[in-house]
Amino acid sequence: MELGRYTEESKLVNGWFNYLFIIPLIMIIIFFYINPELVLSHNTIPLYFLLIVFIIMPAMLGKMTTTILHDNLIIYFGSLGLINKKIPLMNIKYSEIINYSPIKDFGGWGIKIGKYRDKKTMSLSVSGNKGVFIILNEPIKCYGQTIEQLIIGSNQPEMLYEAIKPY
Question: Are 10 and 64 in contact (CB under 8 A)?
Fold first, then answer.
C-alpha cells in the first residue's frame, strides 16, 4: 500500500439481505405498471413514501467509503457521497484498533453521537463492531456538536490503523 493512501468500502447490507430492499421495490413498480391510473391518485401516497424509502435511503446511507488521500481522512456515506466528513491527518493525536458495541454505545450504525470512554464521541459506521478509535488535537464541528473523539467503523481496522498511524 502506498503511504498515505487507503480506501475501504463498507456496505449496510450484503448478500441475501439486499433482497429485503430489492423485492419491495420491484413489487411497487409492478403495482404501478399494472394500475397506471393510480399513479396520480391520492390513495397511492403511502406507496410513493415506500418507493422513496427503498430507493433514496439505501442510496444515501447504504454504503460508507473511508479514504485516506494526501493529508486527509475522508468518510463518504452513500453511493453519491453527498454526506461526508473530512479530517486532516495532522489533527489526529491518537488512534487505536477497537471492538465496540454500536447498539449499546451509539444506538446503532450510521452517523451517531454517543459516549465512549466517558466522553462525547462520534461514530461513523454501517456494519460490524470493529473500528479505529481516534482522539483529535483540535475538536471538529458536526451537526452542531463539538467532537474530540471519533470511531470509524471498518471491516479492515488493522489496515486503516496502519494508514493513519504515521501521522
Answer: yes
